[in-house]
Amino acid sequence: MANEGITGEPAPITTGMSLDREHEKIPFYRRMRVRLLLLITLSVFITEIMVFMPSIASMQESWLEDHHQSAKAISMILASSPEITLSPNLQKNVLTATDALAISIIRNDERMNLATSPDLKKVNETIDLPDYSETKALLDSLTTLYFGGSNILLLRGPIEGTDITLEVTVADRKLRQAMIDFSWHFVVISLTIAIVAATTIYLIVHELLVRPLQNIYTNMLDFVIEPHNPSKILVPEPRRDELGMTQKRISVIESELQKSYAHQKHLANLGLAVSKINHDMRNILASAQLMSDHLADAKDPMVKKIAPKLIRAIDRAVTYSQTVITYGRTQEEAPKRKKLLLHDLVADLLESLTLPGSDQVEFVNEVPFDMTIDADEEQLHRVITNLCRNAVQAMLEREDSTKLQNKLTISGHRIDNVAVIDVVDTGPGLPAKAKEHLFSPFQGSTSRNGSGLGLTICEELVNAHGGKITLIDEERGGAHFEIRIPDLPSHGEDQPKNEKTA
């Protein structure tokens, strides 16, 4: 709020863009559901290819085995009757029935040609079926499918239960055509399976992952546009997985943000109202101060008794109004740090401290004479002054307040390169409500008439030094504030201001 100006609205959550339709600006190909569908389809396609390759190899191997087996029956008959010789027409019928170009047997290293086609050309490849490996079958199947159709294959294998080796010569033209037909059937079946599988997987993943993420994304856009609308808070789904926990956490965060936004808006409206009445208020208070000055010189005893209280009330009103305006409109400057003697600074501060009722408080400066601190003198003065003012007000508001009981002690020490300042009073301490919002503007007031800005300003100034201000719990009562300010390394060996020599 300090850098908004007191008349400003709370900082918007949006970035200035039109976010209500931002999701429609995402290119189609970059949408999660499209990319998911493409990835699933690609995965199924790769799987089908990996299945197709061994399938086509197995199909080829089965085709070769079938053609070799089809010639076994006629070969066994002819092998048992060597005197039988087939006529050319009968050989043609046998070759047509077995879809072969030549059939021969080998027994005792003697070859017998049972049937031979006149169209037989040079054999391009010999395949020993018993030694036909899966790798060789895979490579041959791909070669035949893409480059075959004009080759002659010699299939060699034994006839079970005999010492006969059967050789069948075939053309790969029909093998290639059978492989093409098999491939088309495989493609049709694979596409059907791919469509069904991809659709099923997509619907499952979409329901479990994509849709909840889209709901979260849409909800975040809607919440950014209308953070004040309770209906824009995400309603978690009844699920116990990671997304369910994420939705619950986002819902809690949005609820907290909505409360924070409402609080900021309330503060902004308060600042706007204060700024509007500032001019008239200062005129009214100025007139009241002039009148109170005349009342102080009055002879009437009753007036003399009431006048000091009236003057203090007006002074508090002026201070409160000016504090609110200053907090809202002032941007703190960066600290102008230098080495200071903390004891001298505290002594000057206590000597010049003029607060109503300060004569009823004992001030004690326990800072070592030689203790130095690396800080902005003016800002550190303001921090300690605010703490002293709060302490004095708290002690004087106590009903049994006496000077013997009211004591404010300022001490200090160093821990390595960190200066530590302790401001301790013997007041009633801070109530629990004030501790909860100690450094929050308009909420952390420790006094009935306080604005709650003093401690907020203290924290901002200490944080600007890279330090920290903390309330230390004291069992004996009272308030104990600890300020820690680290040295700035770049200062080197600068001499402290007003350093005394022995």
Polypeptide structure, described:
It holds the Pfam family HATPase_c. The chain has 502 residues and is an alpha+beta fold. The chain folds into three domains: 35-186, Beta-Lactamase; 258-329; 338-491, Heat Shock Protein 90 (2-Layer Sandwich). The protein has eleven helices and twelve strands. The protein has helices spanning 32-70, 72-80, 88-98, 134-147, 173-225, 242-296, 301-329, 342-352, 377-396, 432-436, 454-464; strands at residues 102-107, 110-116, 125-128, 152-158, 165-171, 338-341, 362-366, 372-375, 407-415, 418-425, 468-472, 480-486. The chain is rod-shaped.
Features:
alpha+beta, rod-shaped, Beta-Lactamase, 502 residues, 5-stranded mixed beta sheet, disordered N terminus
Please specify the SSE layout and strand pairing.
Blueprint: H1 32-70, H2 72-80, H3 88-98, E1 102-107, E2 110-116, E3 125-128, H4 134-147, E4 152-158, E5 165-171, H5 173-225, H6 242-296, H7 301-329, E6 338-341, H8 342-352, E7 362-366, E8 372-375, H9 377-396, E9 407-415, E10 418-425, H10 432-436, H11 454-464, E11 468-472, E12 480-486
Parallel strand pairs: 3-4, 7-9
Antiparallel strand pairs: 1-2, 1-5, 4-5, 6-8, 9-10, 10-12, 11-12
Helix pairs in contact: 1-4, 1-5, 5-6, 6-7, 9-11
Transmembrane segments: 36-57, 182-205
GO molecular function, one term: ATP binding
Enzyme class: transferase
